[in-house]
Design brief:
Blueprint lengths: L2 E3 L8 E3 L15 H5 L6 H45 L3 H15 L2 H36 L2
Antiparallel strand pairs: 1-2
Helix pairs in contact: 2-3, 2-4
Family: Belongs to the ELL/occludin family.
Organism: Sinocyclocheilus anshuiensis
Protein name: MARVEL domain-containing protein 2-like
């Protein structure tokens, strides 16, 4: 018996039987770190994972600091725009502010950093989970002796 999950929002359930004609399954994207960092089976693997975590955590912290600072600037610009819009006395200032805001928000360098930061956060969370799982299982195994 074949089963598939419909991708249409109104049909989000597991269906059984033949796959409908014309159904094109969506590919599932699996992050590279899921494959690269499977379950830990040895203390040596744990140490390697920990080294990767520590190394990339520094990069993540720096990116996170930069992204947060930029997002705070966006909030400040939002606030300034709403004040100017309510004021209606300086249309040129509003236009300049909107232009600056759009440029910064759509800056490819900023977007790339933001994407990298989100990727590192997910990767580091995955590695941390693997380390915690190993530690928990390793401790349980040790206590059985």
């Amino acid at each position: 018996m074949l089963a598939y999950v419909s991708e249409r929002a109104e049909e989000r359930k597991i269906l059984t039987g033949a796959i409908p004609v014309g159904h094109i399954p969506k590919p599932r994207v699996v992050a590279d770190y899921i494959i690269k960092y499977p379950e830990i089976h040895s203390v040596e693997d744990r140490e390697q994972y920990k080294a990767v975590f520590n190394d990339q955590y520094l990069e993540y912290k720096e990116l996170h600091r930069e992204i947060t600072a930029t997002l705070i600037k966006f909030q400040e610009l939002d606030s300034m725009m709403s004040q100017l819009i309510n004021n209606r006395r300086s249309p040129e200032r509003i236009i300049d502010l909107v232009k600056t805001y759009d440029q910064k928000k759509n800056d490819p360098h900023f977007l790339e950093k933001k994407e990298r930061c989100e990727y590192l956060k997910a990767k580091l969370s995955h590695i941390k989970m693997r380390i915690h799982d190993f530690d928990r299982n390793f401790t349980v195994k040790d206590s059985n002796y």
